[in-house]
């Protein structure tokens, strides 16, 4: 019974993780993610899917949320910590 319960809990956690990962990957692959984060500094060149991305730690300016299309128009590329 204990093993069965652990299997159910483990399966549910794995299922949730898989669904989140799939959603995140599919939005990155298709470009359907609507918002990303950028550092507004003059030398910034990357965009980030997560506001707490490690790549934004060095940002001395403001971090803004913009559309992925806008970030690409600004010639930003995906942060290396996120791919």
Keyphrases for this structure?
83 residues; alpha+beta; 2 helices; 4 strands
Walk me through the topology.
Layout: H1 2-30, E1 35-39, E2 46-48, E3 63-67, H2 68-73, E4 77-78
Parallel strand pairs: 2-4
Antiparallel strand pairs: 1-2, 1-3
Describe this entry's structure for a reader.
By secondary structure, the protein is α+β, with helices and mostly antiparallel strands. It folds into two domains: 1-32; 33-83, no CATH class. The chain is built from two helices and four strands, in the order αβββαβ. It has a four-stranded mixed beta sheet. Strand 1 and strand 2 (46-48) form a beta hairpin. It starts with a helix and ends in a 5-residue tail after the last strand. The model is unreliable at 4-27 (pLDDT under 50).
Task: Give a quick summary of the entry.
This protein is α+β, with helices and mostly antiparallel strands and 83 residues long. It is built from two helices and four strands; from the N terminus they run αβββαβ.
